[in-house]
């Protein structure tokens, strides 16, 4: 039997994760009081094969009942019931945005700023996060990407290194990405903007990709970039980071940065990394910038 406990920060996507688990055939229970977990597990494990996959969503909505969680987890272990924890989190900026968009207050804010509630929750969940087998940072994940990641873990049997690599292109003329961990400047590469018949296209178009990547310096740079990322990711994992944002910038964020970001994203995906891609300035550019 598969027994999964879904938990994590408020606003990080636990409800979406539960829906994804339901789609995968899990019997899901939301916000079960932790003290009842051992009894519930006993019922499930003695259902004689009628229930094979269970997912429980537990979080600080349980109030004082949440304090019983560790005792219940220890009891599960003592009784020989196997379980694993899926922990969802996101950056403070993303969580604040989600709460504001939903016009909801944080469960621990009690009239205080949302940031105080988030900080209090992080501290409260710190020990629980350390017990998690899988940690997913949903800061840059769309709903379908979260569902794909959950499917990879619980259906395809893929291993997760608990880190999301977010590749983002941008234009320096509109400002650097403030949340980037690594920033690479590709303005030294030949610029399609100066080729009139290419100017209106973007790095998502094959003609731009072929132009940018036909130069020896472009090929060499991408090779060295991949080597550096391969070298760095294991250290980020060792450090305990759950997300690394790699920013690729050119002048306007339309041609060269988009091309290189796409190639890096494709390479990381082929290597099995949990990866997202975003082109910050492509939509805003309307063809007049380089």
How does this model look, in words?
By secondary structure, the chain is of the alpha/beta class. It has two domains: 153 residues, P-loop containing nucleotide triphosphate hydrolases (Rossmann fold, 3-Layer(aba) Sandwich); 122 residues, no CATH class. 40% of the residues lie in helices and 18% in strands. The protein is built from nine helices and nine strands. Strands 2-3-1-4-5 form a five-stranded parallel sheet, sandwiched between helices. Strand 2, helix 2 and strand 3 form a beta-alpha-beta unit. Helix 1 packs across helix 6. The radius of gyration is 22 Å and the shape is elongated. The chain starts with a strand and ends in an 11-residue tail after the last strand. The C terminus is likely disordered.
Based on helices, strands and strand pairing, what is the structural class?
A: alpha/beta
Strand arrangement across the biggest beta sheet: 2-3-1-4-5
CATH class of the largest domain: Alpha Beta
Q: Note poorly predicted spans.
A: 286-290
Helix and strand element order: EHEHEHEHHEHEEHHEHE
**Helix content class:** 25-40%
Distance between the termini: 55 Å
Radius of gyration: 22 Å
Count of the separate structural domains: 2
CATH architecture of the largest domain: 3-Layer(aba) Sandwich
Which fold does the CATH topology of the largest domain refer to?
A: Rossmann fold
Helix segment count? 9
Mean pLDDT comes to: 89
Per CATH, the superfamily of the largest domain is P-loop containing nucleotide triphosphate hydrolases
Task: Tell me the fraction of residues in β-strands, as a range.
Answer: 15-25%
Shape: elongated
């Amino acid at each position: 039997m598969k027994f999964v406990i879904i938990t994590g920060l408020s606003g990080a996507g636990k409800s979406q994760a539960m829906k994804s688990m339901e789609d995968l055939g899990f019997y899901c229970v939301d916000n079960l009081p932790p003290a009842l977990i051992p009894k519930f597990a006993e019922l499930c494990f003695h259902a004689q094969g009628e229930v094979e996959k269970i997912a429980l969503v537990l979080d600080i909505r349980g109030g004082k009942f949440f304090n019983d969680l560790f005792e219940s987890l220890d009891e599960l272990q003592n009784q020989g019931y196997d379980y694993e924890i899926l922990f969802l989190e996101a950056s403070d900026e993303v969580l604040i945005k989600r709460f504001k968009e939903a016009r909801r207050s944080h469960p621990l804010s009690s009239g205080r700023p949302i940031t105080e509630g988030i900080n209090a929750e992080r501290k409260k969940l710190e020990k629980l996060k350390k017990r998690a087998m899988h940690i997913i940072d949903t800061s840059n994940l769309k709903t379908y990407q979260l569902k794909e990641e959950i499917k990879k873990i619980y259906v395809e049997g893929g291993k997760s290194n608990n880190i999301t690599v977010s590749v983002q292109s941008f234009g320096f003329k509109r400002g650097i990405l403030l949340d980037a961990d690594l920033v690479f400047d590709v303005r030294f590469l030949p610029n399609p903007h100066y080729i009139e018949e290419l100017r209106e296209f973007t790095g998502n178009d094959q003609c731009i990709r072929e132009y940018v990547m036909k130069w020896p310096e472009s090929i060499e740079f991408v090779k060295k970039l991949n080597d550096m990322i391969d070298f760095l990711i294991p250290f980020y994992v060792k450090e305990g980071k759950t997300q690394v944002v790699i920013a690729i910038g050119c002048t306007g964020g339309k041609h060269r940065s988009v091309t290189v970001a796409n190639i890096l994203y494709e390479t990381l995906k082929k290597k099995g990394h949990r990866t997202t891609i975003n082109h910050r300035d492509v939509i805003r550019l309307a063809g007049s910038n380089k």
